[in-house]
Amino acid sequence: RIKALNYGISRDGTIILESGDKRESVTATYGVEEQDLTSALLKLLSNDVPAVYFLTGHGERNPNVSDGTGCSQIKTALEADNYKVDTFTFALTDTVPADMDVLVIAGPTEALSDKEISLIDGYVQSGGGLLVMYEPGMPDPLNGMLKKYGVDIKDDLVIDPTHAFYGDIATPVVQDYVYHQITNDLTGLPSLFPTARAVHIMDTL
Q: CB–CB of 25/7 below 8 Å?
């Protein structure tokens, strides 16, 4: 009991992980699952915390908003896997964050300026990661910048009458994937892709 008090444990089922002077605790109401332990171990053993930044200022989805228009669940999942999640806007700076490993541009509703696109292009050319998500009906906010990397995003809408979510052809359901590290854990699990746009891989750069 004294040791539990020293560790600050106040609930049954709490697991304490230690490495040197670092400590992580795991507590779950209905039992600790493998994902909980894996996340705690990543935080405990990793000296580097990858930083994911969401761009704001152009009507993008915000990771700090949980009312259905944001993407707070993505932020929660990333932080559970030992990622730092933050936002930034070019209106407050003329550069990208120095510690940024991945830039997320999630559903902008306004085009980016030429200067902003140039800064993003420079960030990608220097080895930075970029995740772009566009909704249908919005012209390319990056004004064709991705074409130099072999990616062309048309203003279209993916439909699938055969594998539609309860008859909604604009929400394809995917259950089978070719093997890839990214989708390895999704095989057999239904994934929904509402209002998806097609990504065209260019033959030549």
A: yes
Q: What is the pLDDT of residues 131-164, one digit of tens each?
A: 999 999 888 899 999 999 999 988 899 999 999 9
Nearest residue to 47 (alpha-carbon basis) of 26, 19, 79, 80: 19
- Closest C-alpha to 200, from 141, 158, 168, 137: 158
Instruction: Name the residue type at position 88.
Output: F
Task: Read off the pLDDT of residues 1-38 as tens digits, 9 standing for 90 and up.
Answer: 666 666 666 666 677 777 767 766 666 655 666 666 76
In the structure encoding, which two tokens stand for residue 168, read together?
């909604």
> By C-alpha distance, which of 56, 146, 145 is closest to 105?
56
Q: Is the pTM of this model over 0.85?
A: no
Q: What's phi and psi for 78, nearest 5 deg? A: -65, -45
CB-hemisphere CA count at 13 Å for 68? 0
DSSP summary character for residue 155: S
Element (H, E) at 199: strand 199-201
CB 166 within 8 A of CB 172: no
Q: Which helix (H) or strand (E) holds 152?
A: strand 151-153
